[in-house]
């Protein structure tokens, strides 16, 4: 088993580190955040992720997993160092690589033996070449280092499963030595490994994410047309899904994609293309459709209501998708300010993301309206004038149509996730609007 270090304990770094320990490697996770390290040492996960905390505790107790802020200690004798730090979007849409550069510099100062540096973070094509040169430029000791690409495809909420049971591992390598070491690292996972060049590996990550984003935007575009011509997008998706060239996943029209990857990675590839003198028209279209889609329900509601002023508005679901407390690019972040501006009194429910949301929108008077966080769906719906559904949590999906009719003052529901059968809602007396259906 190998001695591995992982830089960054966000979704990518922490999940990778824990899973490497789970298959038997000796892993040290590094982060600059002292409080986070302390929290993890106490057995707690800094992120909400199914199954992660249990694996953290198990492997920490078994002595295979360590957490530290001391990067030197972690890097000096590592066989491989994985970089899983953030590459956030910056003003012009490109990826900000400053955290990667900081880690690269720390690696250059610390390594005492030959070592493979593996970039897991999503980085623009060509970055691995630059990281390798950068580390070589700053190397303090007489050792050989090489950089490999190993993009991460985990989805939030299912990150551990996605890592331990990934459909494929992509490795981007420029030497047989790097390939051999990565094969050894991934051998205990018993998963298919696709070995390609570093630049192809970097591109596979963007091309995959952007393809999925495009698939969703395509269905949202079709959904908007379905409404105009009287078709039902869910029936359309069902019919399409039987064609295995299309597949049956990521065909759900809704309130647009959010999260930490699709919005950022579409913009980054669009930027990279323009930088290379090329216009990536399909990806650009996916971005445009998504921007409009996120406020589609709000716009529909504005056509139906004169104003939201002093209306009780129930908002069910705040996170960008179920299974996570992450709010990055969540549709709620765009819609709630619009409602508050119009003077709505919002009663918001989310099983896990309320704390994160209230850090951005504190409870009480806000703009022309107000926001109150409630811990039950019933409290949100009671005497509400209108309800918005933003996230398909199980607890929200399980609410029967009659509950809206029974609890709300006016049962008017705008559903961004197509959770209900319009006919059933109508039967219960609920005025119901969804995406891509009459
Ligand atoms: C995604 C990719 O799935 C993952 O492989 C990559 O590594 C990171 O980005 P994630 O952002 O965690 O993962 O969530 P995902 O489940 O893919 O959903 C992304 C967004 O698309 C969510 O807002 C979701 O609601 C939306 N979505 C997804 C749809 O609107 N329709 C669909 O059919 C599927």
TrEMBL record:
Secretion signal, residue range per the UniProt entry: none
SMART domains: UDPG_MGDP_dh_C
Gene Ontology molecular-function annotations: NAD binding; UDP-glucose 6-dehydrogenase activity
Reactions catalysed, as given in the entry: UDP-alpha-D-glucose + 2 NAD(+) + H2O = UDP-alpha-D-glucuronate + 2 NADH + 3 H(+)
UDP-glucose/GDP-mannose dehydrogenase C-terminal domain span: 314-422
Key word Oxidoreductase present: yes
Record has rRNA processing as a keyword: no
InterPro entries noted in UniProt: 6-PGluconate_DH-like_C_sf (IPR008927), NAD(P)-bd_dom_sf (IPR036291), UDP-Glc/GDP-Man (IPR017476), UDP-Glc/GDP-Man_DH_C (IPR014027), UDP-Glc/GDP-Man_DH_C_sf (IPR036220), UDP-Glc/GDP-Man_DH_dimer (IPR014026), UDP-Glc/GDP-Man_DH_N (IPR001732), UDPglc_DH_bac (IPR028357)
Keywords in alphabetical order: NAD, Oxidoreductase
EC main group: oxidoreductase
Active site: 261 (nucleophile)
E.C. numbers: 1.1.1.22
Pathway the protein takes part in: Nucleotide-sugar biosynthesis; UDP-alpha-D-glucuronate biosynthesis; UDP-alpha-D-glucuronate from UDP-alpha-D-glucose: step 1/1
Domain of life: Bacteria
Binding residues for NAD(+): 31, 36, 87, 122, 264, 328
Record: residues binding substrate: 205, 250-254, 258, 321
GO term, biological process aspect, one: polysaccharide biosynthetic process
Pfam families found in the cross-reference section: UDPG_MGDP_dh, UDPG_MGDP_dh_C, UDPG_MGDP_dh_N
NCBIfam families in UniProt: NDP-sugDHase
Family membership noted in the UniProt record: Belongs to the UDP-glucose/GDP-mannose dehydrogenase family.
Protein name per the record: UDP-glucose 6-dehydrogenase
Organism: Acetobacterium bakii
């Amino acid at each position: 088993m190998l001695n591995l270090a992982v830089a960054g304990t966000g979704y990518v770094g922490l999940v990778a580190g824990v899973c490497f320990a789970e298959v038997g490697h000796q892993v040290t996770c590094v982060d600059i955040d002292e409080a986070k390290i302390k929290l993890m040492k106490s057995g707690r996960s800094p992120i909400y992720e199914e199954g992660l905390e249990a694996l953290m505790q198990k492997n920490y107790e078994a002595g295979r997993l360590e957490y530290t802020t001391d990067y030197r200690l972690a890097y000096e004798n590592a066989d491989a160092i994985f970089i899983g730090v953030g590459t956030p979007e910056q003003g012009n849409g490109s990826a900000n690589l400053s955290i990667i550069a900081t880690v690269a510099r720390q690696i250059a100062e610390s390594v005492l033996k030959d070592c493979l540096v593996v970039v897991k973070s999503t980085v623009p094509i060509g970055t691995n070449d630059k990281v390798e040169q950068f580390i070589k430029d700053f190397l303090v000791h007489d050792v050989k280092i090489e950089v490999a690409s190993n993009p991460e495809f985990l989805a939030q909420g299912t990150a551990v499963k996605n890592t331990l049971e990934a459909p494929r591992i992509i490795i981007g390598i420029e030497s047989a030595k790097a390939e051999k070491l990565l094969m050894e690292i991934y051998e205990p996972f018993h998963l298919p490994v696709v070995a390609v060049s570093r630049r192809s590996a970097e591109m596979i990550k963007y091309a995959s994410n952007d393809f999925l984003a495009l698939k969703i935007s395509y269905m949202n575009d079709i959904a908007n047309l379905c409404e105009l011509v009287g078709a039902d997008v869910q029936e359309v998706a069902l019919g399409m899904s039987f064609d295995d060239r299309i597949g049956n996943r990521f065909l759900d029209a809704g309130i647009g994609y959010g999260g930490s990857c699709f919005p950022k990675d579409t913009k980054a590839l669009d930027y990279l293309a323009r930088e290379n003198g090329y216009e990536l028209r399909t990806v650009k279209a996916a971005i445009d459709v998504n921007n409009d889609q996120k406020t589609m329900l709000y716009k529909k509601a504005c056509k139906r209501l004169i104003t939201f002023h002093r209306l009780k508005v129930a908002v069910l679901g705040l996170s960008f998708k179920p299974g996570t407390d992450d709010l990055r690019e969540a549709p709620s972040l765009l819609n709630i300010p619009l409602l508050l501006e119009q003077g709505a009194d919002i009663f918001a429910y989310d099983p896990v993301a309320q704390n994160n949301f209230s850090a951005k929108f504190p409870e009480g008077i806000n703009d022309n309206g107000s926001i109150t966080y409630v811990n039950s769906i019933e409290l949100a719906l009671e005497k509400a004038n209108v309800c918005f559904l933003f996230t398909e949590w199980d607890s929200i999906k399980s609410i029967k149509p009659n509950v809206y009719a029974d609890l709300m003052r006016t049962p008017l529901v705008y559903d961004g996730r197509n959770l209900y059968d319009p006919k059933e809602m109508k039967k219960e007396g609920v005025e119901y609007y969804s995406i891509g259906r009459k």
